Amino acid sequence: MYDRTPGGGEKPTAEPIEPSAPEEFGCTQAWWGDGKGKTTAAIGMGMRAAGHGYRVHLLQLMKGGADSVEATRGEYNAIAALPGYSYENLGHYGWHALNDGSDDRDHEQEAAAGFERAREVVDGCHDADLTTHFDPDGAADEGVHMLIVDELLYAVDRDLVSSDAVVEFVASKPANLELVLTGSHSSPEYLDGTADLVSNVRKVAHPFDAGIRARRGTEY
Where is the composition biased (Gly residues) (predicted)? Predict the structure, then answer.
């Protein structure tokens, strides 16, 4: 009865991380919607990839925090403890156009700089052999198997990065690079026919609606 199951009916067990390279990476993913969990899903997927010994890098745009969020985020401590998983925070305090005391010009400059950084990492991947394993402590510019650009789709929503530039960015990536883009409450229709996976994270209920603000360990 287990002939068609990958594990043959055996329960999986944790194995030591052996440096390796993915055999089937190369898709572009887009995670959008008005529900909580887009960034969480992307970071968790990065954790899964790192667990196989793959090299993963997270770039966070538009995510510098707000008055309800502490400066240190739990995901950074978790990522730092995982071999082969690294991150860069390229965001600015507050949120664009929300009158929260932050300067929209700073948001614009940092979103542009963050997107340029994402291009640099992709350029580095072109110079690397993505069919081999990488030094888990190596610089992202030297090649990664999975690149997560968190909130890039939100930056497009805010007209801080053009949709055409994102389409060109996706088209420019190496064939074996898994590219994960998150953000946006609006459908990224500009990625229709370009993204291999598009997930709409819908809100059914949210603690914010009841006045519960960001909580340590769930939102940051």
Answer: 1-10
Closest to 159 (Cα-Cα) out of 96, 208, 215: 96
Cα 96 to Cα 157: distance, rounded to the nearest angstrom: 11
Q: How far is residue 40's CA from residue 72's CA, in Å, rounded to a whole number?
A: 16
Checking phi first, is residue 94 left (phi over 0); if not, alpha (psi -120 to 50) or beta?
A: left
Distance CA 107, CA 48 (A): 31
Taking alpha carbons only, the member of 85, 92, 135 closest to residue 112 is 92
Residue 171 host element (H or E): helix 163-172
CB of 29 closer than 8 Å to CB of 35: no
Of the options 3.90.930.60, 3.10.20.580, 3.40.50.300, 2.60.40.350, the CATH number for the domain spanning 28-210: 3.40.50.300
Q: How far apart are the C-alpha atoms of 100 and 50, rounded to whole Å?
A: 36
Please write the tens of the pLDDT for every residue from 111-156: 889 999 999 999 999 999 999 999 999 999 999 999 999 999 999 9
Q: Are 82 and 47 in contact (CB under 8 A)?
A: yes
Radius of gyration of the chain (CA): 18
Using 50, 70 and 90 to split pLDDT, how confident is the model at 100? very low
What distance in Å separates the CA atoms of residue 174 and residue 122, rounded to the nearest whole number? 8
Residue with tokens 């110079």: 127
Domain ranges of the chain: 28-210
Question: Which residue, 22, 13, 77, 80, is CA-closest to 52?
Answer: 22
